[in-house]
Amino acid sequence: MLVRLALEMIDRSGFHDLTLGKLAAEGGYSKGTVYNHFTCREDLLIELSAESARRQVRYFQAIADLPWSGAWALYGLALAYMRHAEVAPVLFECSITARTDSVCAVASEERLKRRDLVESQMVQVVSAIVERAMTEGSFDNPHVSPAVAVDALRSYILGYGAMHLLSSRFVWSTLEESQSRLPVLASVVSGLGWPRLEADELTSVQRVVVGVVDTANGWR
């Protein structure tokens, strides 16, 4: 309940205006009750980033369970991450902020370990999909390993989400840019060594992914 309430407050006023005292007052709790759960505001931020990771694990596992090839599933993961940034922007932004040294240095070790555990589950799902693609012979890049290619793809998706999806004020956040998302993604993925999907295939993958992510976030 505290996490949900914090998300609502951040959505209204931004994280900079959120304090544990205000969270307690908003929820009708005593400060002591809130401090029993979170030692500081940074602890709360780490928990919000863990909630973001938990949702991503659900998306990724649902995609991994589909009867898709490894390459299709890899595209699905990328599109799920992008969709997550669109439908849960507060969580997505918190997950970025919570990776900074200034936050991690103050948050409790217990809270950090709990988040790391969730993120390790996400890594396991991604690794299984990459392994599937490798077994199918989908990866072909003599210059880098699959692990490096996956890290490069992750960096692109993270940067894309942070720059294009968090704010409509960004200079490239236009209708034309959104329509180019799929072919640009296909260019990045194929450039790293995986197969390039055709436009109709990408549209099919995106349609399924939107359903998975939106359903998990209560949009459907």
Number of strands: 0
End-to-end separation in angstroms reads 21 Å
Q: Roughly how many Å is the radius of gyration? A: 19 Å
What share of residues is helical? over 70%
Shape: elongated
Provide the residue-averaged pLDDT.
89
Secondary structure category: mainly alpha
Strand content: under 5%
Total helical elements: 12
Q: Tell me the series of helices and strands, N- to C-terminal.
A: HHHHHHHHHHHH
Sheet having the most strands: none
Uncertain regions spanning at least 5 consecutive residues? none
Quick recap:
The chain contains twelve helices and no strands.
Descriptive key words:
220 residues, mainly alpha, 12 helices
Q: How is this structure best described in words?
A:
- The model has no long low-confidence stretch (mean pLDDT 89).
- The radius of gyration is 19 Å and the shape is elongated.
- With 220 residues, the chain is mainly α.
- The chain is 75% helix and 0% strand.
Summarize the topology.
Elements: H1 2-13, H2 20-27, H3 31-37, H4 41-64, H5 70-87, H6 89-97, H7 101-104, H8 109-135, H9 146-165, H10 175-179, H11 181-192, H12 199-216
Helix pairs in contact: 2-3, 4-5, 4-6, 4-8, 4-12, 5-6, 5-8, 5-9, 5-12
